[in-house]
């Protein structure tokens, strides 16, 4: 019997030209210490190894300095300025990838549309920033899904 999958929660860009974001992610909660394990589980091995994660403090209820992922821990840090709805992944090869975070309380239909649009290369948005302004991003990517029951709880 095939494993039932949950809604898609991650899109990684496969663009040849740089864009404002390299990925879009819809975490299930505002607990960064729990959600990063899931992000790492979805991360394609061919996309490179993540060395550190920078996050926007207003987007999360916790402020961990490091979190358990796989068989180890990953260092985290926060932005000196509030760049809400953003993670920056520092890769082992020196690249820095920007991940747009869809807020966990976003209605499922809207989040699914944003992720589908990102995978199709359509505009993702509009989204409203904290100051009330709207922004749009364009991404093309591949969908990644998590099998149900794969949730990590420390």
List keywords for this structure.
154 residues; 2 helices; two-stranded antiparallel sheet; eight-stranded mixed beta sheet; alpha+beta
Tell me the layout of helices and strands:
Layout: E1 10-13, E2 23-25, H1 32-42, E3 50-55, E4 66-69, E5 72-78, E6 86-91, E7 96-101, H2 108-120, E8 123-128, E9 134-138, E10 141-144
Parallel strand pairs: 2-7, 3-5
Antiparallel strand pairs: 1-2, 1-10, 3-6, 4-5, 6-7, 8-9
The general outline is globular
* Biggest sheet architecture: 8 strands, mixed
> How many H/I helices?
2
Give the distance, in angstroms, between the N- and C-terminal Cα atoms: 28 Å
Low-confidence stretches: 123-154
Order of strands, main sheet, comes to: 4-5-3-6-7-2-1-10
Quaternary form: single chain
The proportion of residues forming helix, as a percent range, comes to 10-25%
Report the order of strands and helices: EEHEEEEEHEEE
| Strand composition percent | 25-35%
Content-based structural category: alpha+beta
In round numbers, the mean pLDDT is 76
Radius of gyration: 15 Å
The count of strands amounts to 10
